[in-house]
């Protein structure tokens, strides 16, 4: 323990060196910008930043990329809450309670909760990363395809937690999303599905055009219908961040604990990550949070849970990367690339061969979380100003950034057409009060679930009982069953009590 | 140097934006006079991407224009191939073809064929092998013995790839193997380390760090000659298995491109791969040191590789 503190102290001194501190600051700002822009994903941002690190030495390059990663899990929350446009897929759950809270005139509070949640999640994950890196690394290796499938399946149930409106409609929307994600050449056997022989559909429909189109463009179209005359979101004009008091936060301690655990675990498991962490922790709140009945109506639990989990997954991802050399996500794959470019190979030996580098990275996460908090606090003021600009002008920029971001993902013009199509779909959904979120969720998690299911079937010779005989997947399956049955039972009970009152 | 690099990078993207908008075809007397798009049909960070980025960087001084990398991942490279083959045959789009994608011609019958492109040369050849975790299986004989008793799981990158062709070939020789596809490298490596699969098929370079840290060990290489980095590991040839499908990557330009432009590009690639930087990259990747093959030799290798893969696929399909 003393050794760790000693190394960490050396790491802190190293982080405060001007070059490293500059890299950290640049990384935080760029990461937040990338996350704020809908369409331009965090992974793409890290990839674009990689060539800048070619000429730098190893420590600042890794600090730069890691800082981008940390603040990238926070920035998108701001647009989710203020504009109802998720900056990143992991910010979709923030629309539900975050936007609802902002919409009833409490945007400052919603922004304060996300900032507090991101900073707390960051600190928890950094602490776990430093103290438990080696034992937690082993967790990454216990996961096989059945566990992936069971956890993603549970992620789907976050739709059920969202009990505002018809559950049937939510499922229709979810299945529609999964159907959309099935278009294209299938990932396992390479069979073309629903492509109608066109090149455009051959590559499939990614979640990005669906998400950016249905939320970003759909929202703009809805405002266009009203002649850009919708009343400003924030009537009183006193928007800034209102950080929750410690007493308020303490009331949510269970949510913080659950979500950071989910975040770290989803981070450690290769192939899961911030997006799945965010959805799963929202789903868990739907079952265990004391005010679960009001989840989705704008309560802090629904904001804190996905944000804590997203940020907490960063530390989780860094653990298998540093201790085993396994990149668990697109962003960590790029960070691994940066390590290799400088001739350093992460793995169990790195704690012996490069202890200063490792602990400098650890320390940079701590400092980065503080920097992210400050940046968020002060960045919100200018960002809010955007809300006072004429709506038509803001909408033009939103559309432009949506299109640029989506184009940069694959450099393919057909993605732009997809955005337009799903923009119209999103607008029509909104118009007819049909839920959009489950469709986006289906697009994001559908392919992950399909891949894991197919791999399990191949690996275990079509034996579906493995999902229930392996402990981790069985536990996740049980949670899923509870999540699905609970609303049904609750509905039944409510009907019975209404009947009893009537007689 | 550093600010210059940053400037060049920015200007690359700026130019990329410029050509993204419809470009008036004004008279060009000199080739190349604008950036050449380098399509990588895989995501950033992977083997093809690393090769293309290294090569693209070295091609820039030869061609005196920038060579921006464009990642178009999806469907074992099919998405990128479609994008490449729908671009004009003007010499301003080149593409890297990995043998994973090339193998689709033998297994999946994609919409394109070898007639659609001209290879400018093979730029990297990586011997592949089976890997085991830690100290499992003393040697290949132990693997063979185990695989005659119960099925062993092999983590592969996907169906239709050389990984699957090799596994199926061994199955046809009486080994009990079950190829399980894990498209993401991170998952492929962690299922081996976690003991969920018994073997991993991989080119040597991709998993160098795991081998260096003794978490993984090669147990057989599917090559003719032993690798200089692993002199103790036997090859498929000496163990009596007639299968050597190395991972190769070639650079392509569209069929119908002006032969003078093809010659100029081939020459630039020949010079780029001869640089000490590229040689160092090959060594770092555990590639064959003299990986490079010019156009004619590449065509010959591509033809024989395809015949070879088709033969193996036909022979194993009967089982």
How is this structure best summarized?
Chain A is mainly α.
Overall description:
The complex is a heterodimer of chains A (503) and B (319). Chain A has a two-stranded antiparallel ribbon with strand order 1-2. In chain A, β1 (184-185) and β2 form a beta hairpin. The termini of chain A are far apart. By secondary structure, chain A is mostly helical. Chain A has helices spanning 2-15, 18-36, 42-49, 58-83, 92-103, 107-141, 145-156, 158-161, 167-182, 199-202, 207-225, 246-251, 253-268, 274-288, 300-324, 330-341, 350-353, 355-385, 391-410, 414-431, 437-459, 466-469, 471-502; strands spanning 184-185, 192-193. Chain B is α/β, with parallel strands linked by helices and 319 residues long. Chain B has two domains: 31-125 and 246-317, D-Maltodextrin-Binding Protein, domain 2; 128-221, 3-Layer(aba) Sandwich (D-Maltodextrin-Binding Protein, domain 2), CATH 3.40.190. In chain B, the strands form two sheets. Chain B has a five-stranded mixed β-sheet with strand order 2-1-3-10-4, sandwiched between helices. In chain B, strands 7-6-8-5-9 form a five-stranded mixed β-sheet, with helices on both faces. In chain B, α2 links the parallel β1 and β2 (69-71). At the A-B interface, β1, α16 and α21 of A face α1, α3, β7, α8 and α9 of B.
């Amino acid at each position: 323990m003393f050794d760790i503190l000693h190394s960490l102290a050396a790491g802190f001194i190293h982080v405060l060196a001007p070059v490293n501190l500059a890299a950290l600051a640049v990384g935080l700002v760029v990461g937040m910008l990338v996350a704020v822009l809908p369409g331009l994903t965090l992974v793409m941002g890290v990839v674009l930043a990689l060539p800048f690190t070619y000429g730098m030495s190893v420590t600042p390059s890794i600090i730069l990329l890691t800082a981008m990663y940390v603040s990238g899990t926070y920035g998108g929350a701001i647009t989710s809450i203020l504009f109802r446009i998720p900056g990143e897929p992991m910010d979709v759950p923030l629309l539900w309670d975050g936007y609802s809270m902002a919409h009833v005139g409490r945007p400052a509070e919603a922004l304060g909760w996300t900032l507090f949640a991101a900073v707390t999640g960051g600190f928890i994950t950094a602490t776990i990363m430093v103290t438990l890196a080696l034992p937690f690394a082993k967790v990454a290796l216990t996961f096989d395809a059945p566990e992936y499938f069971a956890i993603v399946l549970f992620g789907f149930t976050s739709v059920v937690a969202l009990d505002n409106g018809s559950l049937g409609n939510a499922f229709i929307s979810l299945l529609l999303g999964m159907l959309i994600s099935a278009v294209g050449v299938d990932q396992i056997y390479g069979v073309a599905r629903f492509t109608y022989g066109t090149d455009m559909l051959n590559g499939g429909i990614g979640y990005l055009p669906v998400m950016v189109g249905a939320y970003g463009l759909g929202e703009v179209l809805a405002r266009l219908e009203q002649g850009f005359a919708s009343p400003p979101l924030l009537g009183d004009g006193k928007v800034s961040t209102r950080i929750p008091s410690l007493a308020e936060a303490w009331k949510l301690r269970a949510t913080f604990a659950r979500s950071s655990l989910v975040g770290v675990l989803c981070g450690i498991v290769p192939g899961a990550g911030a997006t799945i962490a965010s959805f799963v922790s929202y789903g868990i709140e739907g079952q265990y949070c004391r005010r679960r009945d009001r989840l989705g109506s704008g309560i802090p639990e629904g904001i804190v849970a996905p944000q804590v989990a997203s940020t907490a997954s960063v530390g989780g991802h860094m653990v298998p990367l540093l201790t085993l050399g396994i990149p668990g996500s697109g962003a960590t794959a790029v960070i691994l690339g940066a390590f290799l470019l400088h001739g350093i190979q992460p793995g169990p030996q790195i704690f012996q061969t490069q202890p200063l580098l490792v602990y400098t990275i650890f320390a940079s996460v701590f400092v980065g979380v503080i920097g992210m908090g400050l940046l968020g606090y002060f960045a919100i003021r200018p960002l809010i100003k955007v809300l006072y600009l004429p709506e038509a002008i803001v909408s033009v920029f939103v559309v432009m950034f949506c299109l640029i971001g989506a184009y940069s993902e694959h450099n393919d013009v057909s993605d732009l057409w997809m955005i337009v199509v799903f923009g119209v779909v999103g607008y029509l959904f909104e118009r007819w009060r049909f839920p959009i979120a489950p469709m986006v969720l289906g697009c994001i998690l559908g392919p992950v679930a399909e891949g894991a299911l197919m791999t399990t079937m191949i690996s275990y010779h079509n034996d579906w009982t493995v999902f229930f005989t392996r402990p981790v997947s069985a536990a996740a399956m049980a949670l899923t069953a509870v999540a699905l049955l609970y609303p049904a039972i609750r509905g039944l009970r409510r009907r019975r009590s209404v009947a009893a009152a009537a007689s | 140097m550093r600010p210059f690099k940053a400037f060049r990078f920015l200007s690359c993207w700026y130019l990329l934006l410029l050509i993204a908008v419809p470009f008036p075809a004004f008279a060009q007397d000199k080739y190349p006079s604008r950036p050449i798009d380098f399509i990588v049909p895989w995501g950033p960070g992977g083997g093809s991407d690393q090769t293309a980025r290294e090569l693209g960087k070295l091609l820039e001084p030869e061609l005196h224009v920038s060579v921006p990398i464009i990642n178009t991942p999806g469907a074992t490279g099919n998405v990128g191939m479609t994008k490449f083959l729908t671009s004009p045959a003007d010499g301003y789009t080149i593409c890297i073809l990995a043998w994973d994608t090339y193998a689709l011609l033998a297994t999946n019958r994609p919409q394109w064929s070898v007639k659609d492109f001209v290879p400018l040369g093979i730029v990297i050849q990586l011997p592949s092998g089976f890997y085991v975790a830690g100290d499992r299986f003393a040697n290949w004989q132990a693997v063979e013995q185990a695989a005659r008793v119960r099925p062993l799981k092999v983590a592969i990158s996907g169906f239709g790839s050389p990984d699957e062709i090799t596994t199926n070939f061994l199955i046809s020789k009486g080994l009990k193997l079950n190829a399980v596809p894990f498209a993401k490298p991170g998952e492929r490596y962690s299922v081996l380390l976690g003991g969920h699969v018994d073997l991993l098929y991989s080119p040597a370079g991709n998993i160098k760090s795991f081998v260096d840290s003794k978490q993984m060990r090669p147990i057989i290489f599917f090559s003719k000659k032993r690798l200089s980095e692993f002199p103790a590991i036997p090859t498929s040839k000496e163990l009596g298995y007639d299968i050597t499908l190395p991972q190769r990557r070639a650079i392509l330009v569209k069929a119908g491109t002006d032969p003078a432009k093809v010659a100029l590009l081939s020459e630039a690639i020949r010079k780029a791969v001869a640089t000490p930087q590229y040689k160092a990259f090959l060594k770092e990747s555990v590639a064959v040191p003299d990986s490079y093959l010019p156009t004619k030799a590449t065509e010959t290798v591509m033809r024989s590789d395809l015949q070879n893969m088709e033969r193996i696929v036909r022979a194993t399909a009967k089982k």
